[in-house]
Amino acid sequence: MTITAPLHDVDVIVVGLHLRWRGVWQRPNHIISRLASTWPVIVLEEPLPADADGVETHTAGNVTVVTPRRHEPAEPADEASIEYLRELIGRRRPLIWLYTPMMLALADAFPDAPLVYDKMDELAAFAFADPRLRNREDALLARADQVFTGGASLQRSVLPRAPRAACYPSGVDADHFGRASSLAAHEALAPYRGGPIFMYVGVVDERIDLELIAALADHRPDATIAMVGPVVKIDPHTLPQRGNIVYLGMRGYDELPALLAAADVALMPFARNEHTANISPTKTLEYLAAGLRVVSTAIPDVVADYTGIVDIAHDIPQFLAYVDGDAPPDDSRTQRARAKVAAGSWDGIAAAMRQMLGAAV
Where in the chain is the domain with CATH 3.40.50.2000? Predict the structure, then answer.
């Protein structure tokens, strides 16, 4: 892979994104907002359904978010969206940065632009994945000037097709989440104070082990299981309902430290299935930066990166036992957790990515 134009010749970064920029604040937001300190950024989101075709734009600082509205959406990056981008870009020289292979049309539209693929998830393994996704990813990996991955499992999955793919696991804003230790608990959790609070923060989707959540609620009727995040791609009626499970829905990034301030144990209750085989959860470092004890199921990247720091359970009984655990503080474990947090700053990750792109010239 070779970057075909020097980075100093890039005037604007164009990002193809499968998520909502103003949704859950995660890897693309952290990396791209930091790159925006150097370059203006245009983010193209996938279309939203509408009665008539149109486009919405939202600008925050140096980032402009473009959200197409389509009566009959067919392509994540259709010709109308590309023409709109051309008008925004003007005579500037773009770098194309994709988070989804489904927007490969952006690379076709700007063939002379450097092309970066940041693979943050195994999107083809998600529920309701577009059947065209795997073939488009093969094409994207073959064409990309630089490939990044969000975890070691993802890196291994692409190395046969992209031998120089670089692994940059998701990071953390330690100052932001470190505030949890000094903040008052979020008012949304006021009704549940007085007993233990076990908290999950993130998207509630096909990756969550709902049987495990129900088992934990039944096992600890004295505790509140707080699920913080939007419910996506699963029927809300399938969520376990117990008097001690509370679904707090979508919350802003700024609210997360105060929410975590109320938690006694942070949960990573992921199912062991094809949807989770290659995930590297961003929330691991966020929980640790908040000073929380973390209990996770045995997701491969968590096992590889956090054994001895996070309590990792291989079945439901072990998960329940770890949540119950009240071992005295382990200074060695605390120091390892702090070292992980310090080494995983988003500032450092974005800077390393930028340096790697520059070195590839």
Answer: 7-171+345-359, 174-343
- What pTM did the predictor assign? 0.91
Per-residue pLDDT of the chain (361 residues; tens, 9 = 90+): 444 445 668 999 999 999 999 988 999 999 999 999 999 999 999 999 999 999 999 999 999 999 999 998 889 999 999 999 999 999 999 999 999 999 999 999 999 999 999 999 999 888 888 999 999 999 999 999 999 999 999 999 999 999 999 999 999 999 999 999 999 999 999 999 889 999 999 999 999 999 999 999 999 999 999 999 999 989 999 999 999 999 999 999 999 999 999 999 999 999 998 888 889 999 999 999 999 999 999 999 999 999 999 999 999 999 999 999 977 778 899 999 999 999 999 999 999 999 988 765 4
Q: What angle do CA 121, 165, 94 make, to 5 degrees?
A: 85
Do residues 281 and 310 make contact, with C-beta atoms less than 8 angstroms apart?
Answer: no
- Do 278 and 169 contact (CB within 8 A), yes or no? no
Measured distance CA(266)–CA(290) in Å, rounded: 10
Residues 311, 325: Cα–Cα separation, whole Å: 10
Least Cα distance to 153 among 15, 280, 307 occurs for: 280
- Write phi, then psi, for 309 (nearest 5 degrees): -120, -40
CATH 3.30.365.10 fits 174-343, yes or no: no
What is the topology classification, in CATH, of domain 7-171+345-359? Rossmann fold (3.40.50)
Nearest-CA neighbor of 224 among 194, 202, 204? 194
Rounded distance between C-alpha atoms, residue 235 and residue 73, angstroms: 23
